[in-house]
Amino acid sequence: MSSISGQLLRGSVWITISRALTNGLGVLSTFILAWNLSPADFGVVAIATTFILILTTVTEFSLSAALVQHASPGVSHINAAWTLNAIRGALLCIITWAIAIPVASIFDEYRLVPILVALGVSLLIGGLANPKLAMAQRALQFHQDVIVTVGQKLVGFIVAIAIAIIFKSYWALVFGTIATQVASVVISYAVMPFRPRVTLRHFREFFTFSGWVTASQVVNTLNWRFDQLLVGKMLGSTVLGYYTMGSNLALTPTRETTAPLMKTIFPAFSTIRGDNNRLAAAYQRSQSIVTAIALPAGIGVAAIADPLIRLALGDRWLPVIFIVQSLASIYALQTLGSLAQPLGMALGESRVLFNRDLQLLILRVPAMLAGAMLGGLPGVVIARVFTGILSIPFNMFLVRKFIGLQLVDQVLVNVRALLASTVMGVTVLAYSRTFLHV
User: Fold this and answer.
1) Following CA atoms 312, 386, 220, 133 in sequence, which dihedral angle do they give, to the nearest 10 degrees?
2) What does the pLDDT look like over 100-140, one tens digit per residue?
3) What is the maximal distance between C-alpha atoms in the chain?
4) Distance from C-alpha of 179 to C-alpha of 162, rounded to nearest angstrom
5) What are phi and psi of 313, to 5 degrees?
6) How many CB atoms lie within 10 A of CB 99?
7) Is residue 175 very low, low, confident or very high in pLDDT (cuts 50, 70, 90)?
8) Which of 225, 173, 188, 190 is nearest to 34 (CA)?
9) CA–CA distance, 327 with 302 (Å, rounded to integer)
10) pTM
């Protein structure tokens, strides 16, 4: 299968296997942890992981993406990527330890100090990961990535569940993260042997590609995580626990069902970036498939959120229902233009992507602040819905800019999925209210 569609399909099969296994473990892990830990436990760890994510994003050079996008990467490029990642991991560990006490003081939560110290160690370990895996992705070969992804998830699952059941402690979430990181590094070298050499060559070459990508990722992370810091500071760790759980459950159906395609799309687009007609056709095919998968998954979960939460998590998690109902459909709808990101990266338009993310952040921050001040947790959720809807035309305009595909053509390719998902959502919701009395 030499066509781009064939390559996408073959890569997607491997990733589908990975996502099916990891998704099952992830959902099972969420339910077991929810029964054994409190919302406050999830909240305090969410604060720490949000700071960790911001730090890692600020220093992210997107080296794997740079290797995929590079015209002819060699061994020296892989060595340089390993060296930069190792240095970055060590610096992140030190920074995380340094901010532990100030962050704990800001949120008046002493438990954040040891949590951040432990997560700092995981960053040090993560910096040693094998960058050679990017070369397999570049060739649209994903079986090595499947082994790494499933292996690390299984190890993290076992560690987190064991600690949660035995100790009923938030440390289950922390040590599960660390175990996942250790497993990822070890397995990456097992499936793709590589003996790294220390070198600082190609730094400028990497930065030329990664500079604006990193800036975009920083802003995008703030877009997605600012609300968690806001909820944690203004509404407390327990409310943040509800919000984190609800957001994760709402995102899961969209993320997990589309991941097989999404992970193959960037390298696939990169291989045909010089042929605009072919690229536009590939974009439309890929977008229609992603939407057809994401919309029924997201809207379906939103429709059954009430009985699902009551059954799977229990009565103490009932505030999560409104969050899932509100956000699951929005996350699914946002996939209408989500391929603007891999398309822009494949074309080297990282500065344009940064400008988009910055504009969305400027809109989102005041909306979230107003929502929290005026409506508490429901206000934050409503603000998230509003800004999520706004992001869709932003992405569609970018696609038109990149490949000249008109907005009406972008909408038409998704009409069938939109109509079918709407009918499905209304039917499921009506059935649940009529026969399940919810």
Assistant:
1) 40
2) 999 999 999 999 999 999 999 999 999 999 988 877 766 66
3) 66
4) 12
5) -110, -25
6) 17
7) very high
8) 173
9) 8
10) 0.82
Residue 1 pLDDT = 41
Whole-angstrom distance, CA of residue 273 vs CA of residue 200: 29
Note whether 170 and 241 are within 8 A (CB).
no
Residues 155-183: b if buried by 16+ CB within 10 A, e if exposed? bbbebbbebbeeeeebbbbbbbbbbbbbb
CA dist., res. 404 & res. 36, Å (int): 52
What is the SS3 string spanning the chain?
Answer: CCCHHHHHHHHHHHHHHHHHHHHHHHHHHHHHHHHHCCHHHHHHHHHHHHHHHHHHHHCCCCHHHHHHHCCCCCHHHHHHHHHHHHHHHHHHHHHHHHHHHHHHHHHCCCCHHHHHHHHHHHHHHHCCCCCCHHHHHHCCCCHHHHHHHHHHHHHHHHHHHHHHHHHCCCHHHHHHHHHHHHHHHHHHHHHCCCCCCCCCCCHHHHHHHHHHHHHHHHHHHHHHHHHHHHHHHHHCHHHHHHHHHHHHHHHHHHHHHHHHHHHHHHHHHHHCCCCHHHHHHHHHHHHHHHHHHHHHHHHHHHHCHHHHHHHHCCHHHCCHHHHHHHHHHHHHHHHHCCCHHHHHHHCCCHHHHHHHHHHHHHHHHHHHHHHHHHHHHHHHHHHHHHHHHHHHHHHHHHHHHHHCCCHHHHHHCCHHHHHHHHHHHHHHHHHHHHHCCC
Query: Residue 2: its pLDDT value, please?
Result: 45
Residue with tokens 């998230």: 384
